[in-house]
Amino acid sequence: LDVSRLDLTMVPLEVQDRFIGSFGIASLKLDENLIKILPPEMFTLESLAELSAGNCRVKFIPTELTKLTNLTCLQLHGNRLRVIPQWLGKMTHIRRFTLAGNKKLTTPPQSLWTLPTARLLDFFRRCISAAPTGRLDWSGLFLGSMDVLYTEVVGWWKIHTLMLDECSLSVVNNDLLNKLTDLHTLSLAHNFLTEFNVESVMALTGLQSLSLSHNRIRRLPWEFAYLTNLTALDIRSNPWFQPPKEIRQADCSVLLAYQQAFLSSFQASTVFDPDSGLDRETLPKFPVAGTCPDGFINSPSSLSLFLCGNKLADIPQKLSQFSMLETLDLSFNRLPSLNAWIPYKFPKLKSLNLTNNRITAIPIDYGACSNLQSMQLGSNPLRQPEQWLVS
Question: What share of the chain is helix, strand, coil (3-state, %, to 5)?
């Protein structure tokens, strides 16, 4: 039955009479009319498979639509709809559903309008199931924003598991995270996040599992150490600048301890002590390969630096910014030689521990360390100066 393009403000009575008791109408087209309300009589058409009311003035979708159990095509583009009811997700028999052109539509978000019908209806079903289960999985829906949670999920603040993988997210809504007080699992993998900042961390102190893999994050804030309940962390496939690769690949507890070491250094005079708070029997040393981490360079009040038990093969000159340095511990590393600039950049150096490295010679420049009181060189293959002098 096609009554399109007739400038109808309502379905004529003679047409409505055909609906009653009719089982033969499989397709009803009301496109490009002035109809504001879908006639209730049409919902008695049990055989109706296609309903097209595009480019009309329809403002809402009545619940009676659920009676059309054979409906496979629903076209409501170009209307004045404000809300698409979530119960529509239960109508799994619908294969085609058009929404474009509803300029006043606030929910679902416009980013979902172009999704295949099956995925759009799946979005509604996931919203419905979130409240009773406390688990919301919107993975693969390309939402573009976490704000959808406010408008789409009843009781969203009670969610304990939130899966937002492949949602085209570029920022994290920290205000929203602060309200998810029961959240213990958060997955933000395969998005476009460039940072996971301090505000995000402080909002998730009860978190147990976090996935940030396959994003564009370069640095984890030191405050990550506050996530003391965290037992599972996935940060693979990001262009990491900090923490070092060996730390990222280690156990979650090692990473948290590493972050805690730096965090503590900002609150005290010690710059970095990798063994601070660690049980040597259960946790490995921090295997920072080849170079020192960069995160603590901006701490001007630091007086001591402990980098023992790593895999350092060089002392980066960027450490020369610590002109007030008094204690430097580089024991148990892989240093093959000593840098000649150290005595001049650290004029206040009092204690230098270089035991258990691969050093073969001490540069004569170290005679300029006028304040040096302790210099430990044991377990190095020294050729100069003589071993008896070192002892």
Answer: 25, 15, 60
